[in-house]
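fyi for ur records
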Amino acid sequence: MKISTARFGELEIQEEQMIHFPQGLPGFEELRKFTWVNTGEEMPFSFLQSVEDGSVAFITVDPFLFYPEYSFELSGSIKEDLKIERENDVQIKAIVTIRGSLESATINLQAPIVVNPGLRVAKQVILHDTVYKSRHALIRHQTGLSSREG
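which gave:
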């Protein structure tokens, strides 16, 4: 099937390239079919492009590349919804927002996208009671030596 996108022009999408979001994404509940569009091997970013609305695409990244300590538990209902039985059944992505330069970009660690790539089904999970926010700095700046109190 061919889709027309605002960002990438016309794309040829096969059924096996589609990721299904049974409940849509928060704010985009009516959109259920997406596909990944990679930006190139040297870049860690990919786009989650709506198959149903060519104007909707989200920049995504593997959050562990930028926050290796990132961790959360999936509830039993999420595992059941996505038919997750083993750790290998899971791929995690996070939405990135770039306003201006890449240095000011943020990553949403509070609402990761959880994908079962084998079944091509996904859900954006909103983590409650967590230290993670929807706008963490994507690029953490090194802050030199800390000053000593004296």
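The two ends are 68 Å apart (CA to CA). thats all i got for now
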